[in-house]
């Protein structure tokens, strides 16, 4: 028979073997403790921003979108100005500034972008404006994050830039760019706002020549003319971009005619029936501005547009 001492030694060895096997299986070796499940890593939470767009929608986007599609040339200019050229993966065929924008994948025109092509780019953020209501609704139904924003006045453009900065993860850069624009515009308007009504030349801004089309109330171009120290002869029109009546233009007798379309020469405008009597024609103040886009786009070049227009209307103020 085994001695009592030997039996105790064998029991001790058996207990030690049991403890070793339990520890190898991940079960606590403390006597009387219950088995604990293996801990799981905490789920990764992607930071997001929630913004309200021009349609009053509450839109949640990732805090730093890596893939952005722009459906408006002005928004494209803002994105590049904020240093987001690498993140822009899709633009319209009219997004031509800066030059790098023309190298991006095109999703169609400004008014008719392809939803299918937009979705194929797998964007984290799509920037649209109020023209794209149907597109926005379609993208929303497909769970594509889309933010519709626009500026209807010149003073609203810095705010638009700040909103794009928040939506794109470049909030600090957006605030800095907006502050620069406000400063540059204030340097011009501090002079033009002091002008009396009689010192503001009557302006006819021609968007197109056949049919005649101009800018009216509700357009930021109407606002731009006023800030530059002019009086828009179409300020009482019924739409933002009205068709212009030649007889009404002759009656208003503009002192300055500005056009950007480049489809006619100054001589062609001066030879229009009856236009030779206009103050603008007699004074030689028909001005072709070659870069229409800085006037037409509510983006980071708006201070440049305001300065150019103010110089045309009031060269004496900016010698």
Could you characterize what this model shows?
This protein has 12 helices and 13 strands. It has a 5-stranded parallel β-sheet, sandwiched between helices. The model is unreliable at 9-13 and 18-29 (pLDDT under 50). It is an alpha/beta fold. Helix 4 (133-141) links the parallel strand 6 and strand 7. It has 2 domains: 48-179, 3-Layer(aba) Sandwich (Rossmann fold), CATH 3.40.50; 196-288, Rossmann fold (3-Layer(aba) Sandwich). The longest helix has 22 residues, at 171-192. It has helices at 4-24, 73-81, 115-120, 133-141, 157-167, 171-192, 220-227, 246-252, 266-270, 279-282, 292-296, 302-313; strands at residues 48-52, 58-62, 68-70, 88-91, 105-106, 125-128, 146-148, 202-206, 208-209, 212-213, 231-232, 256-259, 286-288. The radius of gyration is 33 Å and the shape is elongated.
